[in-house]
Amino acid sequence: MAVTKSVIVTGAGSFLGEYVLKALDAAEIDTIALSRQAVAACRRYGLSARVKPVDVDLSAPRLNWSLPLDRPHTIINLAFDRMVANSSAHGAEINERLTRNVLRLCRASKDSKIVNASSMSVYGKPEGGLVSEDTAPLFPSDYGIAKLQAEQLFADAPEVVSAVSIRLPALLGRDAHSENWLVRVAQSLIQNEDLTYSSPDFRFNNAVMASDVAMFFVGLAMRDTLPPDVRVPIGSAPGPCLADILEQMRSDLNSKSRLKILPSKTSSFGIDNSAAKKLGYRPRDVMETIKLFVQDFAQNA
Predict the structure, then answer these.
(1) Contact yes or no for 130/270 (Cβ under 8 A)
(2) Could you give the 3-state DSSP secondary structure of residue 117?
(3) Residue ranges per domain, the chain?
């Protein structure tokens, strides 16, 4: 008889964690949800009994929870500290502990596969064009360096048979983080504030819906086999230029804001989805992505 798969989700209380857990629950997949306040988060999400929350601090020096060994597990790793500018050294230490504790879970698992939420920040400051899996990092931030280190630790660990790191752009959806550029744009538009931007002809695709990422992660977690070490970026499917996207956002939000174009000081870059498509990723058109985000934003404003 085939062994039923189950999934462990770290960072269960995060913004993306809610979408991933709801997608796993809807797919009727047995799930263990880990975070410091997993029980409260899962209650808030309204999940079924197939999602088992466990309150555990994965950033602690000593992990105080053991993995049940009744079946194979795949880990969807979302746990990571945001590393605010004034505490980057402390954040780097936390993130290394998080990563090593995830590896401790892998040592106890019968199926050591990891689907890891990485970040476009690993690329640093690309010099325009399209960013792909082959693009070399160029002066990444402290956060980007920490993400690269986590990717490498997972790839090098002998107890991990497969580590797939998905390098995420801006995540959109209900309660998207206020540091997100598009969230700040929407806030300005809904308050009728003038908006300045550059690169109006740039075919922007550096954003995805969190719900789409969740479905992609769940699909990866349920695959029987995954490549041993893959690190790929994802974005929306390119569409109109940035000027048209912002004009559409202004119209959808009934905004009276004026849009002003400034000279660009840096090269804009897009995201090549080719490698991710080979793993089953199906990018949504960027204009549809933006429209869905604006609908969510307007409802919650």
Answers:
(1) yes
(2) strand
(3) 6-171+210-233, 173-206+236-268+284-300
- Pick from 179, 294, 180: which is nearest to 247 by CA? 294
Give the alpha-carbon dihedral of 174, 179, 185, 186, to 10 degrees: 20
71 φ, ψ (degrees, to nearest 5): -165, 165
E strand segments, 106-241:
113-119, 129-131, 162-168, 170-172, 195-197, 207-209, 229-233
The structure's pTM equals 0.94
pLDDT tens profile 172-215: 998 888 889 999 999 999 999 999 999 999 999 999 999 999 99
Place of tokens 């060994």: 69
Strands (E), 109-249: 113-119, 129-131, 162-168, 170-172, 195-197, 207-209, 229-233
Superfamily for domain range 6-171+210-233: NAD(P)-binding Rossmann-like Domain (3.40.50.720)
